[in-house]
Amino acid sequence: LTIIYGILTLLMGVSKIQWAVDMLRFKQKYWIVAMLGSVLTTIFSILIIANPFASTSILWKFIAVSMIIEAVIDLISIIFGSKQLK
User: Fold this and answer.
1) What's the predicted TM-score (pTM) here?
2) What is the C-alpha separation between 29 and 3, in angstroms, rounded?
3) In order along the chain (86 residues), what is the average pLDDT of each group of 10 residues?
């Protein structure tokens, strides 16, 4: 289950990198926030995949924290990204 979660998170990170690059191409002001979120998502997913069975308790706490950080960064990029479209 943990490996599947890591792979799905990695796929989301890669798609977010493309989203951040698209924001840069369209000259969005806060593209760096989306890029930061995508890089963090990718790093977290690689760490999850690299060592999924070390300590289940620590791993699930790490996953919870990474999901919260990812959600906050996504929310910030959506808010600032939508202001650029107006």
Assistant:
1) 0.65
2) 35
3) 85 93 89 90 87 72 86 85 60
